[in-house]
Amino acid sequence: MADSEFLEPVSHFFYSHRLKLQFWDWGQEGKPSLVLVHGGLDHARNWDWVAKDLRRDFHVYALDLRGHGNSGWAPGALYTVAEHVLDLSALLDIIDDFPVYLVGHSLGGIITLMYSGIFPEKVKKLVAIEGLGPPEKHKIHRPAPERMRDWIERVRQAEHRTPHSYPNLDAAVARMKEANPHLSDEQARHLTLHGTNWNADGSIIWKFDNYARPFPPYGNRIEDAKEVMRRISCPTLLFWGMESWATDPDTDERAGVIANRKVVKAPGAGHWVHHDQLDLFLRETRAFLGR
Q: Which is nearest to 291 in space by CA: 260, 266, 269?
């Protein structure tokens, strides 16, 4: 087995918006920088299989979003896309290797797409896995009074909700596989080990902040997203899992405004294309980044 199979990234912290946030550094000094951004209620170590492969040609970093992984929780925060883009901007300024390569999944895809439209001169190439945002008929696109009421009610419910815990690691792994039946036993265990902490009584709890669950009541307008994405100038690769709930980029008006885009549709994959079809994801991503 190759030494790279045993490689562990180095943990670093930085500050953004008065929060202490973590990122993982996979090394390879002197190679172009590539930053991986995970999705909601996830963590940076979900990229481990991708990072170990891409580090052959890139200096790979993986960010733990605020309220996720080993990064700080934001008291009173909305966990909006704007806040996440701010944090990514702070990290990229620290790395200071522009133009940079970005890869994002789900919420991380939204964040990287937004960053690329706000700072088009700073991004060399972009890969987004199902990162266009909630479908048009999602409740987050309802009229503003309904969105505000729903958000307030969900936050108030969270204030009275005790985060769910599991009696042991196996029970948490089972929940991970329930969330994504495509995962192998090895994948589910790895993701659970890096995504949980132990309580004092020995039970297992997820690392993410429960207040990161509710969708913020603003900052998700499709027209706003289109206005930003229209300014993306770098080559952009969009992945879609053909068994996913997300919309097909070929039919989503947000994807349509990205001028230099390519769409890859992954059969046998749900929302986590980079887990469900890793070989296909790496093959297409490598070909795209290498061009």
A: 260
